[in-house]
Design brief:
Length: 319
């Protein structure tokens, strides 16, 4: 039986692994900027394992963006993919493309103890949707459905591009500055790695400060060190994430819980747990009581998207 390969391709990095017995093997991370195409990156990955084209039978790639048709253009990097050309080049029998947050959602079904932290205590309601949301290069949102008998479905969507919610005059001021800078203000505009500097510049502009920090890393470090402006950026980030996550719970009936994923929040996890996230999450006026008992988890597992691609691949093969 030929090997199976899974990939999780983001804006900056592409993660690849072999998938065997519902486990990842030989995980490797490659920078997308270093390679002209996914075929080139996968060929390099396989050659490093001593595997020739034709040794892989099935591939599942988790990709950012809507998936349909033969052609796919990655939204956060320069890569393009033709299903037909991909299979021919790598001599692959089956290629499955899944939305990155559909894969991430499926990855939540394989979380192990120690791979998450509790943000809000609660008990997930059986067979109810769960929300998966994650700030990273962009803002991904997915919905996980428990179908029973160990099978799951993930609903693809582009929920990171909904409008940024506003709940105070202060937030309206910040929104106005961002709107003046870029036009339409989506949730992803603020809730992503690139969103941290954008929110920082808005706060500086509104309050008359000269900005001195220009990277997410610098802002995070300054905030954790006690810089008051950077601290406000992190707090505002957490509150906006809470509102967006809460909106998704109301829209999907997501009483199966909320998973916070992505690369941004783990950089200031302890701050996040003490932030206004939980308050903003449930601050929905007459619907605030709806959120009682809904659990929220901060996921720290390193390769959930890859695992989810493996789950998607397994579920696509008839048994």
């Amino acid at each position: 039986m030929k090997l199976a390969l899974v990939g999780d391709i983001g804006g900056t990095n592409a993660r690849f692994a072999l998938w065997k017995n519902q486990q990842l093997q030989s995980v490797q991370v490659l920078a997308t900027a270093d390679h002209a195409s996914p075929e080139e990156a996968i060929s390099l990955y396989l050659s490093g394992l001593g595997l020739a084209p034709g040794s892989i039978g099935s591939v599942c790639l988790s990709v950012a963006g809507p998936v349909s048709g033969d052609e796919f253009k990655f939204t956060n990097n320069h890569w393009r993919l033709s299903r037909t050309a991909f299979c021919k080049t790598l001599q692959v029998e089956q290629l499955l493309l899944v939305n990155d947050f559909s894969a991430m959602a499926l990855g939540m079904t394989r979380l192990q103890p120690g791979e998450f932290r509790v943000v809000c205590e609660g008990t997930p309601e059986p067979l109810r949707p769960a929300v998966v949301i994650g700030p990273g290069t962009g803002l991904g949102v997915g919905t996980l459905l428990d179908l029973g008998e160990g099978r799951f479905a993930a609903l693809p969507g582009e929920g990171g591009h909904v409008d940024l919610p506003l709940s105070s005059p202060r937030e309206t001021q910040l929104w106005q500055h961002i709107h003046n800078e870029i036009g339409h203000v989506s949730a992803e505009t603020a809730l992503s790695g690139g969103g941290l500097p954008r929110v920082y510049r808005a706060i500086c502009a509104v309050d008359g400060h000269e900005p001195t920090l220009d990277t997410p890393e610098a802002i995070t470090a300054a905030g954790l060190a006690g810089d008051p402006i950077a601290l406000e950026v992190l707090e505002q980030f957490c509150c906006w994430l809470g509102r967006v996550a809460g909106n998704n719970v109301l829209t999907t009936g997501g009483r199966g819980g909320v998973y916070i994923v992505g690369g941004v929040i783990p950089r200031f996890a302890d701050f996040f747990l003490e932030s206004g996230f939980a308050r903003s999450f449930a601050d929905k006026g007459c619907m605030s009581d709806y959120f009682k008992g809904i659990p929220v988890w901060l996921v720290t597992a390193p390769y959930s998207g890859l695992v989810g691609a493996g789950v998607a691949l397994d579920q696509s093969i008839p048994t």
